[in-house]
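Module 6 notes. Inverse folding takes a fixed backbone as the condition and produces residue identities as the prediction. Think of it as a translation problem where the source language is geometry and the target language is the twenty amino acids. Below is one complete input and output pair. Work through it position by position during the lab.
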């Protein structure tokens, strides 16, 4: 069962100019197993294989794999509303923020009715980030972007001469974010979006270099028990998502998201045919997620 049968998942991708945001968009469009909608600032920067293009209609490009690429010429609100009303509705939307934008302000759109926020992803130019952080003209913008991230993608790893120093600097700016590294913006999409919630408990599924394990139960969970479970989560659990019910208001399905050590819990924006009970999946490095990771939920 998917996280929600009604609300659309929104992921915001930010990062300074040249960090690799558009390259990531192209990677998502070509590698996603599920149809997605990508919102970008300029079609001209997207390098979609011509064999994948099914049709071009005004401000959108439809791909043969079911994905769609939309231009933000009319702004975020108009583009999101158009996608929300589209039939069939996309399962998830990925929004590319401009290189000088605050990703957190863009992420606010992910809380609108009909949507829920998956994560704020910030691309970092590994080859130039230390220079940027020492440049008085751009340092504040770059630092703020990094500080707002749930997931930091340290790109251009192949060009890094001192990986440890750069990673430590990112940790100083944002100690709670999950940091992953990549080359050519090739992030594992299972880590980017989290694995889908499934109905069978404690099943390990191999996903490239990651494993996912899932939990399902029917009884509402107390907020205290949830918080204690999160605090005890092993470091190997890098990503978690799901829908659960709290005993204080069991009739309201809550969307749960965790990236690194950051987590949030929000009421499901639309409640048409929401999942029943609790359904949570965690993602971590292959072979390292403990089998008893959900003991606090059981």
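Target side of the pair, the amino acids:
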């Amino acid at each position: 069962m998917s996280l929600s049968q009604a609300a659309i998942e929104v992921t915001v991708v930010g990062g300074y100019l040249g960090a690799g945001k558009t390259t990531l968009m192209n990677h998502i469009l070509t590698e996603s197993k599920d149809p997605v909608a990508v919102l970008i600032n300029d079609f001209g920067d997207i390098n979609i294989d011509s064999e994948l293009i099914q049709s071009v209609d005004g401000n959108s490009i439809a791909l043969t794999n079911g994905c769609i690429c939309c231009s933000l010429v009319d702004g975020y609100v108009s583009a999101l509303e158009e996608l929300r009303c589209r039939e069939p509705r996309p399962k998830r939307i990925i929004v590319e923020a401009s290189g000088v934008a605050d990703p957190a302000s863009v992420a606010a759109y992910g809380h609108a009715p009909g949507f829920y926020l998956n994560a704020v992803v910030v691309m970092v130019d590994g080859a130039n980030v230390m220079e940027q952080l020492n440049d008085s003209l751009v340092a504040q913008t770059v630092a703020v972007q990094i500080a707002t991230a749930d997931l930091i993608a340290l790109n251009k790893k192949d060009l890094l001469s001192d990986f440890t120093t750069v990673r430590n600097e990112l940790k100083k700016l944002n100690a709670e974010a999950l940091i992953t590294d990549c080359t050519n913006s090739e992030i594992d999409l299972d880590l980017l979006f989290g694995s889908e919630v499934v109905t069978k408990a404690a099943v390990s599924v191999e996903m490239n270099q990651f494993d996912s394990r899932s939990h399902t139960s029917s009884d509402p969970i107390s907020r205290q028990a949830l918080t204690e479970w999160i605090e005890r989560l092993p470091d190997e659990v890098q990503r978690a998502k799901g829908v659960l019910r709290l005993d204080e208001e069991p009739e309201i399905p809550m969307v749960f998201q965790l990236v690194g050590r950051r987590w949030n819990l929000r009421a499901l924006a639309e409640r048409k045919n929401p999942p029943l009970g609790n359904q949570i999946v965690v993602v971590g490095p292959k072979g390292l997620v403990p089998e008893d990771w959900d003991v606090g939920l059981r």
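Reference fact for the lab report: The chain has two domains: 8-191, 194-285.
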